Amino acid sequence: MATKTCVLIIFTFISLLSLPLSQSVHFNIPAVFNFGDSNSDTGGLISAGIERLDPPNGQNYFHNPSGRYCDGRLIIDFLMDAMELPFLNAYLDSIGTPSFQKGCNFAAAGSTILPATATSVSPFSFGVQVSQFLRFKARVLELLAKGKKLSKYLPTEEFFDKGLYMFDIGQNDIAGAFYSKTFDQIVASFPLILTEFETGIKRLYDNGARNFWIHNTGPVGCLTQNVLRFGTDPLKLDELGCVSKHNQAARLFNLQLHALSKKLQGQYSDANVTYVDIYTIKSSLIANHTKYGFGQPIMACCGYGGPPLNYDFRISCGQTKILNGTSVTVKGCSDSSDYISWDGIHYTEAANQFVSSQILTGKYSDPPFSDKMPFLLKLKF
Looking at the domain assignment, is residue 379 inside a domain? Predict the structure, then answer.
């Protein structure tokens, strides 16, 4: 683990040195409001009682399941650290007097941009998450108007205006569709999906949001689960061992999401709209995993079945079930920092740390980090 951290520090240092010397590390965001799926869920779906997580989830950082589908921290956790802000509590988390003073997380695992259906994993689709935020904001302002007693737990009205609104959602709209639709049908659905996303952004803008941070969708064809289900025919895999059609769909979706982001940049001249190319970062990690200190680019760390994928649809990380007449408990691998995939669907903390380090270079953002961005990356070197 120490070696992996050293590699990441060195690589990040080299990446930062490629930026203009006039920049330096400085984050000045008072609060963050996040919307998304399991890639940034810090406990939403678990708090709702829809699912549960058992060890070894959370083993590397929190040392217990934290509501995150990971062995430790997520990308959003590392970004919050970079902004010198506390980790975000889930909107539905009501235990332990959670503080929402520096923001709130509305993300929930399994969520989609399109409205949820009766068969959806999560009922908290993007439109619902936006509605939850509007309820949250209205209730916060109502409580603060009654006095300052709760001010140490709640964001001020100014925090809502100057806060950063982050989005990492859409992966489930694409990956989930492959179970019932053709490639052409999936691509044809993108305009509808993005119209729903734009509607949510507009609702937030109309309620004072001005700083938007939009992550695109990663290479879903490289997720262990999808390789097992859709990659049995080697002809359907690309040179990285990923499902070609899934990644092609993700790239097409991202092109349209990028176009929407450019549209919003022009439409909301008083706002900051940032598009972050997560796809390129994650693809580079998988393609160059050895260079970055990872041994396993696709095989799951916490899974069942052994090499080459160590994944079984019948049982998830931490679960105990009877399979073929035998009681089986899914445990983690001996060194999760050697793996990119934690449980076949989500990334390990080590992989999330790498992705975060690349986001913070500003090279994968449109526009790149500058004085007009929600926050400015500045070098201390």
Answer: no
Structure tokens at 128: 């619902």
Q: Which amino acid is at 173?
A: D
Q: Are 113 and 177 in contact (CB under 8 A)?
A: no
The model's pTM is 0.90
Q: Is the peptide bond before 56 cis (omega within 30 degrees of 0)?
A: yes
Q: How many CA atoms lie within 13 A of 220 on its CB side?
A: 24
Beta-strand (E) ranges in the chain? 32-36, 103-105, 164-168, 211-215, 272-276, 296-300, 320-323, 326-329, 339-341, 365-366
Task: Evaluate whether residue 100 is within a structural domain.
Answer: yes
pLDDT tens track for 237-289: 999 999 999 999 999 999 999 999 999 999 999 999 999 999 999 999 999 99
Domains of the chain: total: 2
Residue 17 burial (CB < 10 Å; 0-12/13-18/19+)?
exposed
Angle made by CA atoms 143, 146, 150, in degrees to the nearest 5: 55
Report CA torsion sign: 374, 214, 225, 128: positive
Catalytic residues: 38, 343, 346
Token representation of residue 370: 């500058």
Q: Hey, which residues does 26 pair with through a beta bridge?
A: 376
The domain in which residue 344 lies consists of 288-362
Query: Which CATH number is 34's domain given?
Result: 3.40.50.1110
Choose among 104, 103, 167, 78: nearest CA to 360.
Answer: 78
Cα 311 to Cα 3, 43, 329, distances in angstroms: 27, 24, 13
pLDDT per residue as tens digits for the range 114-144: 999 999 999 999 999 999 999 999 999 999 9
The CA-to-CA distance between both ends of the chain, in Å, stands at 25
